[in-house]
């Protein structure tokens, strides 16, 4: 097998690949905001408009309102990539591995280093040991090329049927 193509990935392409991890990263802040909002409402209600309980409730509500803003900022940073990542990149897929290159860089991965593959509508995500992952875009592939790569990954046990 030898499949070669050049493709420029868009910011939306990366957003789609990164949004699941970004959602996990902000889940704790969202949960905290909900808890603080409930606590704030309860304290304001039981304070009957005066005393320390009113102050505690107001502070909890203000904190609850600030956490979604923080979560949005964290999410946005997690799904935003440098502009250079969106430039043209060439891929060569062979029986030995995958090579990805730009005018400035080149990286090669052996299939032996790939532990599993996640199939997504617009990419194959290839996982190595630890958190290391790289992508193989599917959009520029013809239906025949995509089927060939998919069959290869299935034969190697890297992709679940």
How would you characterize the overall build of this protein?
The protein has 161 residues and is of the alpha+beta class. The chain has two domains: 2-9 and 83-155, PH-domain like (Roll), CATH 2.30.29; 11-79. Helices cover 48% and strands 24% of the residues. It has three helices and seven strands. The chain has a four-stranded antiparallel beta sheet with strand order 1-2-3-4, with no helix packed on it. Strands 5-6-7 form a three-stranded antiparallel beta sheet, with no helix packed on it. Strand 5 and strand 6 form a beta hairpin. Helix 1 packs antiparallel against helix 2. The longest helix has 37 residues, at 11-47. The protein is elongated and about 75 Å long. The model has no long low-confidence stretch (mean pLDDT 92).
Write the layout of secondary structure elements.
Layout: E1 2-8, H1 11-47, H2 52-79, E2 88-94, E3 97-101, E4 106-110, E5 116-120, E6 123-127, E7 133-137, H3 143-155
Antiparallel strand pairs: 1-2, 2-3, 3-4, 5-6, 6-7
What is shown here, in short?
The protein has 161 residues and is α+β, with helices and mostly antiparallel strands. The chain is built from 3 helices and 7 strands, in the order βααββββββα.
**Second CATH tier, the architecture of the largest domain:** Roll
Strand order of the largest sheet: 1-2-3-4
**How many DSSP helices?**
3
Name the structural class: alpha+beta
Q: How far is the N terminus from the C terminus?
A: 20 Å
Shape: elongated
Q: How would you name the oligomeric state of the polypeptide chains in this document?
A: single chain
CATH top level of the largest domain? Mainly Beta
CATH topology of the largest domain: PH-domain like
